[in-house]
Every structure is written in C-alpha cells, then in structure tokens.
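cron nightly-structures :: item 1 of 1
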Amino acid sequence: MLRLELEPLHGSGSEFQLQLEAPRTKSRAVVSIDRHSMQVRDDSPGAGWILAERPLRPELRRGAPVLVNVVATGNRLVINCGRQMLRCDQPAGQSGEPLEFSLVSPRGGFAIREMRIEGE
C-alpha cells in the first residue's frame, strides 16, 4: 500500500501521476489525479485506454491536503482520494507481477506532504 498526503499547489492543468510498471512484461498502469478527477489508464505498449475514471467531489484545492491510498492486490487496483474510491482491474500483464513505481507531477502542480509505503 502507498499512502500519500497530496496538496495541489496551483490552478487547473496540473496532474499528479503514480506510474506502476511490471518490468518483465513491460506492462504499465498510470493513476492520474488532478483537481477534478482521478483515473487509471493502461499505458502499456500498444494499449493506452482508460480503465476507470471518477470525478472528485469536492474538488481538490490549494491549502487543503488530501489523503490518497493506493492498494495493488493480485489483479486489482483500489485508489482512495479523500472520501472517493476508484476500483479497477490491473492490466493483464501486471497481474501477479512485482511492480516498480514512480511518482510524477509533470508541471509541478502537486506537493507530497507525507508518504508511507507498506507491504512486500
């Protein structure tokens, strides 16, 4: 499990990404969070489709950090952002595979205030 306290730093157009990759199969899922929504997409070679998406209510705002939990089970992803939950199947190439992860904020629009990693 990955637990983050995220805070948006400025206006719309900013995005926070958690990239999950299974190196052996080259499968990649990307969890994206912006001020308005969260989504999971399969970013594996030859894929590129949205697996699940959910609007955030209330929207994220500057000065109000939000707790984000991400759990990757054998074949599912469960993401909590504040009180919102998003569940979906992992891409087939990640199911049961060890995962590497990267935290990315392409435009620098989010700050990680706290982070905790649990599990194997």
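cron nightly-structures :: done
DSSP finds no helices and ten strands in the chain.
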